[in-house]
Design goal:
The chain is mainly alpha-helical and 177 residues long. It folds into two domains: 123 residues, no CATH class; 38 residues, no CATH class. It is 64% helix and 3% strand. A hairpin with a 2-residue loop joins strand 1 and strand 2. Helix 2 packs antiparallel against helix 3, helix 2 crosses helix 4 and helix 3 runs antiparallel to helix 4. This is DUF4383 domain-containing protein.
Length: 177
């Protein structure tokens, strides 16, 4: 049994994961398309202003690629969208730190400025937050499928059976946490 089979179709966190991936993907897609439409130099380290941020052709292309990944995650939905959001959000935050380190050097191949670094941090945190919604918290409700998956021993005997089946298949059923 796949974990996605255990989530109800109208499960609220799944809708939030999907909406967050789609929304952030569209924002990045618009930014990337505006940069490519302006015909920016591909490897310029000075960049041109696009939607208030500095950009070049390479950054526009990377923005479109990130948007495509997020939009695919939104189309797939569920746990996949959540995982994609968390991974892409983390990469945006990491990109902010890396580009902050090379801000005023010749290694600034994405033409970042301080506003881009701030945008990268904020967008990364927003995307990751959408991915973690309803999945990561100290106080998830008992009917949350992520909580149920992590705590099968706390469920009534009839409810714990479907959740224990995948662990048995992988050979980790008898291990303690």
């Amino acid at each position: 049994m796949d974990f996605r089979d255990e989530l109800p179709v109208d499960h609220r966190p799944a809708r939030v994961h999907r909406a967050g991936a789609g929304l952030c993907g569209v924002v990045l897609l618009v930014f990337g398309c505006l940069g490519l439409a302006d015909g920016l130099a591909f490897f310029s380290t000075t960049g041109e202003r696009v939607a208030g941020l500095s950009s070049n052709g390479l950054l526009s292309l990377i923005s479109i690629a990130a948007a495509a990944v997020l939009i695919v995650g939104a189309v797939i939905g569920g746990n996949t969208a959540s995982t994609i959001n968390i991974a892409v959000g983390g990469l945006f935050v990491l990109s902010g730190f890396v580009n902050l380190a090379v801000l005023d050097s010749g290694a600034n191949v994405l033409a970042f400025r301080v506003s881009n670094v701030i945008f990268s941090f904020v967008m990364g945190l927003v995307i990751a937050t959408f991915g973690m919604y309803g999945r990561v918290s100290a106080k998830l409700p008992l009917d949350n499928p992520y909580w149920r998956r992590r705590h099968p021993e706390a469920l009534p005997p009839d409810a714990a059976q479907p959740l224990a089946a995948p662990a048995t298949r992988t050979g980790i059923a008898g291990r303690s946490r």
